[in-house]
Specification:
Blueprint lengths: L3 H10 L9 H12 L1 H14 L7 H13 L3 E4 L8 E7 L3 E7 L3 E2 L17 E2 L4 H21 L4 E8 L7 H7 L8 E8 L6 E2 L3 E10 L15 H15 L8 E8 L10 E10 L2 H22 L2 E10 L6 H14 L6 H11 L21 E2 L9 H7 L2 E7 L10 H7 L2 H23 L1 H15 L21
Parallel strand pairs: 3-6, 3-7, 7-14, 8-13
Antiparallel strand pairs: 1-2, 2-6, 4-5, 9-11, 9-12, 10-11
Organism: Neolewinella xylanilytica
GO biological process, one term: folic acid catabolic process
Keywords: Hydrolase, Signal
């Protein structure tokens, strides 16, 4: 364990924070550095594959091959998901889990260029950086495995290959299948435009595809014989938009029409709309979702159509764990942020010039570790890590794999993720997660405190029930 007085002395006299690392920690960190190019080669392959949720066969197989080659025991196809897997090393407790994602987002592509330049060889892109997420987490798990092995320590490190985070809720099915039941703590990270390890929540989320069925007819010659499924969709959307005035201000409801007909002169007999409903509290997500369903039922009644819906995914809000968050923040502070070389600085300036607020981005913040915060009420996005955090104490961080000012789900995020900027951020994450796991193996009292904190937050009568019910994984939701 690091000496707190030395930490203070090094900080006061301005010596590099890496000087605070013990010899064991230095060995682990240097091991990740030595293999950084190889790990980025794996990440770049996944970046090139750009496979969407539940279709990540090559990406999943590549990470399985990497981990199996390092001595992990791989179990593929877990939770009835072909691309989900676990990779385990060691025996006994404690059991520390590391999450790894690898799905891309559909409909957005980009080369590793600071100028808008779409790829024509794929129809998806890693606009959320999950190619780095999966590989960086694997690098951390391998580093911890080597440390356990070299020091003949008892304990288990387990990597979770978790597909379809983007709307497919892969982790929810893995939680529901009991794959985290024996785990003492879970570590994860996410690409970002800055460096932080806050104990922060997120929005709970539930989604569904609403499908309307009507009667086809000639739109000009015999409109009286038709019943437009598209009218059903549009009537539903109109009612939901009026509903927005009467939900809690933190609620978010958004949709996209995925099928609206084929030709203006043919009354469509089928139409579909895809909805997301979000709120910081999962109970209110469920309640608001039922109100959206009522809108759909009313729309079908009013347009003479019929309707059914399929719940696609549901995710709990993240439960922040302050005990683990403080440990991870300290490790991130020691590792530090991302320092650009001259070529990376030029790339970052090129990316920043494409922002709507061009000139306002402070590129120097890529090297800064933000102060630790506790954020109980979620905002922004959602993640299926939320369900994991209700099952086991969970902690995460974000690192600057993107140029400061970059939005997730943007072409600028894809671009930076394909360069050494993405690599450096991934390495920062891998080192921080590895050091955090080592602390948890060496200090069982941290795990006890983290579990007590989880139990206090979720209550003694908590029973896990997935928001998506008992449905099977929607393996075709991206088709």
């Amino acid at each position: 364990m690091r000496n707190p007085y030395l930490l203070l002395i090094f900080t006061l006299i301005g010596l590099p924070l890496t000087a605070q690392l013990s010899s064991e920690e230095t060995t682990v960190v240097e091991g990740i550095d030595r293999r950084a190019e190889a790990y980025f080669g794996v990440a770049k392959q996944i970046w090139d594959f750009a496979e969407v949720g539940y279709q990540e066969q090559r990406s999943s197989a590549l990470l399985q091959e990497l981990l199996e080659g390092e001595g992990f025991t791989v179990e593929a196809g877990v939770a009835d998901i072909p691309t989900a897997f676990t990779a385990t090393y060691g025996s006994g407790g404690p059991v520390i889990g590391v999450l790894g994602e690898f799905d891309a987002l559909p409909g957005i592509t980009q080369t590793a260029s600071p100028d808008r330049e779409e790829r024509i060889d794929v129809n998806a892109g890693h606009a959320c950086g999950h190619h780095l997420f999966g590989t960086g987490s694997a690098a951390a798990a391998i580093a911890v495995k080597n440390w356990l092995q070299e020091n003949e320590l008892e304990g288990t490190i387990r990597f979770y290959g978790t597909p379809a985070e983007e709307g497919g809720a892969g982790k929810v099915y893995m939680v529901r299948a009991g794959l985290f039941d024996d785990v003492d703590a879970v570590i994860h990270w996410h690409p970002s435009d800055g460096n932080s390890a806050d104990a922060a929540s997120s929005l709970s989320n539930k989604s569904a595809k609403f499908r309307f069925y009507g009667i086809s007819a000639h739109a000009a010659a015999a409109p009286q014989n038709g019943r437009s499924a598209l009218d059903g969709v549009e009537a539903m959307n109109h009612m939901v938009n009026m509903l927005r005035e009467h939900v809690e201000m933190e609620s978010r409801i958004h949709y996209v029409i995925t099928r609206g007909g084929e030709a203006p002169n043919v009354i469509p007999d089928f139409a579909e709309v895809f909805y997301y409903v979000r709120h910081p509290e999962m109970a209110l997500v469920d309640a608001n979702f039922e109100r959206v369903v009522k809108c759909a039922e009313g729309a079908a009644l009013g347009t003479g159509t019929t309707m059914d819906y399929e719940v696609i995914h549901g995710a709990y809000n993240l439960l922040p764990n302050v005990t683990l968050g403080e440990v991870m923040h300290e490790n991130l502070r020691q590792i530090g942020g991302v320092e650009y070389d001259a070529e990376e600085q030029a790339f970052a300036e090129g990316i920043a010039a494409t922002f709507e607020n061009a000139g306002e981005a402070d590129l120097s913040t890529a090297a800064v570790v933000e102060p630790f915060q506790v954020i109980r009420k979620g905002s922004g996005g959602s993640t299926d890590v939320g369900d994991v955090s209700w099952a086991v104490p969970t902690v995460g961080l974000r690192t600057a794999t993107w140029v400061p000012g970059t939005s997730a789900h943007s072409w600028q995020a894809i671009a930076a993720g394909g360069t050494s900027i993405g690599k450096k951020g991934m390495v920062v994450a891998a080192k921080t997660m590895a050091l955090t796991a080592m602390d948890l193996f060496r200090q069982p009292e941290l795990l006890e405190r983290a579990r007590a904190e989880l139990n206090e937050q979720r209550g003694t009568d908590f029973v896990y029930k997935a928001l998506l019910g008992d449905r099977e994984p929607p393996l075709d939701y991206r088709n």
